[in-house]
Amino acid sequence: MWRSYHGIQYSNKVTIIINDLNIYVMKKYKITQKREECLGCGRCTIICEENWEMDSSDYKAKCKKDIIDETEYAKNKEAADECPAQCISVQDCDLEQNLIL
Ligand code: SF4
Questions:
Q1: Do the domain assignments include residue 43?
Q2: Pocket (CB within 6 angstroms of ligand 1)
Q3: Low-confidence ranges of the chain (pLDDT < 70)
């Protein structure tokens, strides 16, 4: 389902920014975490404090949002790569095959 906000078209899979001369397509990524495997070390919250925080109810990490765009990818991917439990994954959201601009 496509939505529009001030010239920006977006769905849960991709964001398209249209201005006078250019069209930018920003990929989106889905974060998943196997919380039961989280060790509570806090490493992800140090690497990517923008999107990861500790949950004081169970002392495990949780992400603030599970759909991110390209600008947020690098730090979230680093957090996933550095997680000692390897319980975080960051994957491309599939582009819709019939996307027509
Ligand atoms: S780095 Fe991994 S194990 Fe450590 S708090 Fe984050 S999700 Fe949990």
A1: yes
A2: 38-44, 60-61, 83-85, 87-88
A3: 1-7, 9, 20-21, 95-101
